[in-house]
Amino acid sequence: MIFAKSRATEQKLEQIRKQQALLLIAYDGVVPVGFKLGYVIENKQSFFSWLGGVHEDYRRQGIAQALLEKQEQHVRTLGITQIYFTTFNRFPAMINLGKNNHYSLIKTAPEQGEVKYWYEKQLL
After folding, report:
1. pLDDT tens, 10-49?
2. Cβ-Cβ contacts under 8 Å for 50 (sequence gap 6 or more)
3. Measuring CA to CA, how many Å separate 67 from each of 9, 70, 107?
């Protein structure tokens, strides 16, 4: 509904099931319109915000911002002080969401003809 193709392999989902995962879903009534999925990195005090998105008909309404804030709030309750995500140059809205929420760009690298970005934030 949000991505053109599935980004989750069964192997990746099985790995996430073994971690302390958090799945947040935004609804319009009973219709899911956005989500944010992440998990605690095993043996580390960090949280990886792996996937998220908002259906194109619901964008620019603050849904992604609300999901991000709820995710950060939950991560803080776990006692985790670092959260990070990756994205690509084809997702400028995600890059801006990170920048607007005080995530720091820590790394860039080419990946399959694109630029991949790593952002992190220290949660206080």
Report:
1. 776 677 767 788 999 999 999 999 999 999 987 778 999 9
2. 16, 37, 38, 39, 85
3. 23, 5, 24
> Residue 42 has which token pair?
């095993």
Q: What does the alpha-carbon distance between residue 114 and residue 4 come to, in Å, rounded to a whole number?
A: 17
Residue among 32, 38, 74, 81 nearest 57 (CA): 32
Contact (Cβ atoms closer than 8 angstroms) between residue 40 and residue 55 = no
What residue ranges do the domains of the chain occupy? 10-122
For residue 123 the two structure tokens come to 């949660």
In CATH terms, the superfamily for domain 10-122 is Gcn5-related N-acetyltransferase (GNAT) (3.40.630.30)
DSSP state of 3: S
Report the distance separating Cα 41 and Cα 48, nearest Å. Answer: 7
101 burial type by CB count under 10 A (0-12 exposed, 13-18 middle, 19+ buried): middle
Q: What DSSP string runs through 57-71? A: GGTTSSHHHHHHHHH
